[in-house]
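Section 5.1 Outputs to date
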Amino acid sequence: MHPRMSEHRRRIRGELAELVGSAQGFDILRAALLVAAEEYPELDVERELRRIHELGQGAARRAKRLANPFARLDAVRAYLFEELGFRGNADDYDDPRNSFLNEVLDRRTGIPLTLSLLFAEVARAAGFETRGIALPGHFVVGCRLDGRDILVDPYHGAQVITVDDCRQLVIRATGRPSLFRPELLAGATDREVLIRMLRNLKRTHLARDEYGAALTYVERLLAFAPGDTQEVRDRGFLLAHLGRPGAALRDLEAYLSLEPAAPDAAAVRGRLAWLRRRLGRVN
């Protein structure tokens, strides 16, 4: 890594850590843009925040004379998804750019999480109380106005959906009906949303066999959730892929000590045996 890039990344990670701190609530848009800023050294976070604010002002102007919550929400939908042309990127869902808000603003395409972050902020400017809803395998938005609670799926053009639609989205994404729980509709914390974003980026890089890039996101996840044993395990596997058997062995041993009855314990023990042979060690 170029020394200047290394310093840039340290600075951005420091800013993100300071923003997040130990709180569950923080400026999630700024946090998302700091995630992007690590990959885009020239990114001006304040400029991107202004761009989002201007979208909110545009939506507010179109909705201000509408009293009915559904009509007001439809004005926000039409503004973003018809007039401005935002859409879900079904053609290249795993493109990492879909997870960076600056790219979503530039290209007007994204995945459920980033489009939901954008829609929630714009709808908030139009008078709604909003919350992000982290369904397993999908992300939607809850909007509330005048006592009426409305669920919206920004990835699919901000269509209004029902609780049963949410259940069906989970089933289509995961194949496991049991993963849907009504309490999820109460909304996710900002910390949970940030972790979901980092995991999405980790997954997209793994799908492309970009192990070094995936490792950077595992490290960032562990900075915010140091007790996450699955990330410790994944860091071990990635370190092994990247030719760092000693560090990989430490992580995988730590994983098994914390999760001795894990469903994948046998596979992890097999990888540990391979690493020990590689290091010339005797168990």
